Amino acid sequence: MAIPTDLQPVPIGVVILADTSLDLAAQWSQLLQLYVGPIFKRITEQSQSAKRIQLSFISYGTSERTPSPFACKRYFHEVSQVVKKMREEAWTGVGTCSTTSHGAAALDGLVAALEMFDIFIASVADSTPKCHLIHLVASTFNDAIHPTFNDDTAFDDTTWDSLSEEFKKRNIFYSSIVAGVEVPQLKKIYEASEDKVTPWFNILTPSHQLSLSGLTQTYVPPPSPVKRTAENRPSESNKRPRTSMHIETPPFVAESASVPDIKPVLPAVVPKPEPSAPPPVSAPTMPTAPAAPSRPPGSQPIPSSMPPEIEVLVRRPTDLVDNWARTEAKLKQLQQAMLAARNMGDRQTEEQAHREMLKIQPMYHRMVGIINALTSKPQFAPQKAIIEQRQREIAQGLHPLVTGGGAVAPAVPAGMPQRQPPGHARLNSGEFKGMNVPMMIGGPPNAMPMPSMAPPQGPQPQPTPETQGGPKPIWRGSLCWSGVDSTNGGKRDMQVFVAAISQSNGGQKFHVDTWPDALMLTPTQQPMVPMADLGAWAKRTSPAVAMFVPQNPQNVDKAVNDQSFRALIQLIATKKVFAVAAWTLPNGSRDPGCLLFTGPNNNSLLGAFFPETGIPEMPKVDGFPMNPQVEQELQKMTPEQRNLTLNKLMQIHQTQQRSRLMAAGGGGNTPGMPQMHNMSFNNNPGVGPPGGMGGGMFNNGGMTNSAFNGGGPGGGGPVNPASFFNNMNMSQPQFNGMNMNMMSMAQRMGMNGGMGAGMGGMNGMGGGQPGMMMGNGGQMNGQINANMLQALMQARNQQQQQQQQR
């Protein structure tokens, strides 16, 4: 049957455009295999020849990247060669930088794709090529109106609104794969596209949005029964391998299917059953044609797009399950090694483990999908029984294949019943239907199960605060921190899976529906302020306050995640700064909407949220009040007397702050910040963070706070955030803040020499009475003069009278 003239093979140019965000790098192999693979298969069917397809790749970051935002720009080449390179992160540039703070230069990337298509179209002038642009996005865009890094000046005036016309001029079909972000600019482009197509394959998660065009199935090969003679039928089994030649279409699947160290030991030739042997009457097998004796009883034809190594595994279900178990164990080991290396700052080991995961994951995804199909369709009942039996044996340790034994039990042919050990409970038929893919660390914030044919009934979930009887989290996701490692000067990326628990009884709503799955944290230039000043800031701004606790999704090691949580708290506390997270607010702007800070004694992590307006102002240290008369008196003193006097002034200022906070709390609750005054800090360095990593954080004689002494969620009611601000004793950060104020005052008075020792003594203060200034060796330096105290008291009384008159 001749192919119509208008369907003859035509040159096809495909550009894959991707940003360089860490979020996209975490999902890279999944997106290529689950989405780009089927898209390429459809493109190949349209072309009728994979050799006529040329592939180009472009990746872009932020416009601040030097010398240009492009991490990779490669001209069209054979698909297999480009795909092979696309699995190398160093080649693609994907994951080399975070694009969340400034937004990615997407407009420059799209214009670069147009320039690439212009070169391609000019090179095939003998025919009219068909062009496809596949855009992978996991980051928001910057606010550029025109491109800045285009090579062709004809694109200088290009805007988002004019891109659609540029695509139509060149017969470019635009398809986008957006993972977890909202990008309204792309919606306009897709609305103007022609030949829109609904995805014909499964979508992994609702956060993945696919907009496809130009992928209509225009030509379907004639079915195999259309034969001129019936005598050719017996050779159908011999012609069967020809169907596997179609594997050349989506190399994203075929070339990534090799797993070097986990291939099963298989015989070279699968023996064929005796043709003369009639099938048993009682065997629960599906009717099969007598001309196909090479298939196991009860099996169905294998899809032609299946890689050969997977095709063989389906014919031997025990080997399929064994390989799945080995691969999952291998991925978990690599994941733990990757997390441990990241927390230790070993970038080289982390990247090596990441590359190994990228090699193994495609095969794992493929096996999960096949197992889901075999256990959900009735025609594969024999394979389903064998899979369930093998799974029971592996779960009960009857086979050492996962634990390192290396030996694999002989495979049982499909359809043959296996003897079940006595006492084994029957496994739920949906055991494999909810298998979760081991997560790529640094990637998407939530564990995403593979698509299944039925509701998942996999492993039991990790205990959560609500299952433990504690407050219900309002949000689950991850906190990502990118910075510089002080030990080696290299880049250090951290990802911690957490849950946010509300601590507010009022104030603004959280609007968690607007939060991203991953909060990208950046340190502030403003230093940490004392708790008293933080409380005053909270009273002015009325944020919604939440506490973060470790949350351990499936396939994430709890100990490693808890360690990462503690490391993140230590990082913020060591830098003595706040951390902010920005996302797209309801008003359309991308501003910091969350301020993160450590709790007292650096044992907890809290966030003040402004989900509607963004952070209105940053916390700052209130000025230390100083009467000019007191400054004159201090200038007349010796350094020792001056240090003691400044210490007394600090006590007075501390008392005034405490009185103001108590007065504010006694007369009524601060909006969103209920008051709690019966707490004092228990400076116990051994106390760990919440979530089961330590004991209580507060202690006031025999009176304890249930939320903290319970060790985290489930230990009591939600913690009252006002306890961090309105307590009766000053913590070490407060001393540091006071020291900064007095140092500033001392510099104005020209007393740098005397203040140095005094401040050092204060910073190192351990025991002793509150407010006592300790010098070198812990001894008091000098005595307080009676006239000096009288001047101080007079100054204080004058100041109080002025405040009362106001």
From TrEMBL:
Residues 228-239 have a biased composition (Basic and acidic residues). Residues 283-292 have a biased composition (Low complexity). Residues 214-247, 270-307, 445-475 are annotated as: Disordered. Residues 270-282, 293-306, 446-464 have a biased composition (Pro residues). This is Mediator of RNA polymerase II transcription subunit 25.
